[in-house]
Amino acid sequence: MLSKKKKSSAAADKGYASGYEKGLRDGACESLVRLIEPVISLTRNVSILYIPQGFEAIDQGIIEALRQLVREVHVSDSKHMAEQASLIRPDWMLVLNGLHVFPEDHLGQVDAVRALGIRTAIWFADDPYVSEETVSIAPHYDVVLTHELSTVELYRERGCQAVHYMPLAVHSKWFKPMRTEEKYRSDICFIGQGFWNRVELFDLLAPYLAGKRVFIAGGLWDRLSNYTLLKPYIRMGWLPVEESIRYYNGAKIVINLHRTTLAGSDNKNTHNLPGRSINPRTFEISACGTLQLTDVREDLSLYYQSGKELETFSSAEELRAKIDYYLGHEEERRQIALRGLRRTRREHTFITRIQQLADELQW
């Protein structure tokens, strides 16, 4: 049995090693961030009325990008969008998602805005999980943007004349590398709702995770069969964005598992459309300079190179093996995370994405 003195010394050595490792990571990330700033090609001579969904990080990323890229930006809540459009007379009204908190007269308001001669666009950010609702919303807009490949044809089949695949991005002023306190540090981190496919994965991994420094946050995690075993690592409920960013930064590995698209399994996907596209969390994790282990979606290779800028898994066994490998190979883990950060800041910020959107809509 170790003496108290030896235990204290071992703990101090472990703390020093952890701090040294974090220092190397933080310094490399800070240097990279200073070198790579989003480039603005030109300011568009257009006036935009933006209607947020209430997805704080996405909404703010879009708003700040618009303010840097177009002549004039106004923001209104969904309850008063027709009234504001009538007063402001923008060239375009851009709506994010149009779901959840939008009023019952949402579509009537959109029709009224179009009757004023104002062009309208909606950018769906929850596809294909709520396709049961979005198919009736999309035809009311002049232009439909979706981050999900599988819904493009669905909207065209419903008579939408202008449908564009437009991935989301990251608000790089928020999601970025930062130094964190010890309480935010973990070996393995997952932030998100406990949808059934996620519960299944974490139940399989539970005995393995119980021996690691783990942080899990979100709702519905009491669905776990192994909830008692993992409960000490779970923070139930909603986690503020700023806290998520700190936990991403404090982790050695962040897991990203897309939710299932099966109809009726936490979804309104009655068309049973597959999930072919990555979620915004993919960009957000990589923007923090932390190694991401994600399941594979069809368009992932358009944005990141597996094994170079992030890592992928297709089963609980593969995920466990890669967690073991990268926890034991610090330098390799750090280099992949840095390359992912570099790619994200160069190509996947909202500054870049809104410029692509502006080109698509000919602003």
In short:
With 363 residues, the protein is α/β, with parallel strands linked by helices.
Outline the structure in words.
InterPro entries: YkvP/CgeB_Glyco_trans-like. It holds the Pfam family Glyco_trans_1_2. It comes from Paenibacillus baekrokdamisoli. This protein is of the alpha/beta class and 363 residues long. It folds into 2 domains: 44-169 and 350-361, Response regulator (Rossmann fold); 182-347, Rossmann fold (3-Layer(aba) Sandwich), CATH 3.40.50.2000. It is 44% helix and 16% strand. The protein has 14 helices and 12 strands. It has helices at residues 4-35, 56-69, 81-88, 106-115, 131-137, 152-157, 196-209, 227-230, 241-250, 280-287, 300-303, 316-327, 330-347, 350-361, and strands at residues 44-51, 70-75, 92-96, 119-124, 143-146, 163-165, 186-191, 214-218, 234-236, 251-256, 291-294, 311-312. The strands form 2 sheets. It has a 6-stranded parallel β-sheet with strand order 2-1-3-4-5-6, with helices on both faces. Strand 3, helix 4 and strand 4 (119-124) form a beta-alpha-beta unit. The protein is globular, with a radius of gyration of 22 Å. It starts with a helix and ends with a helix. Mean pLDDT is 94; it is low at 9-13.
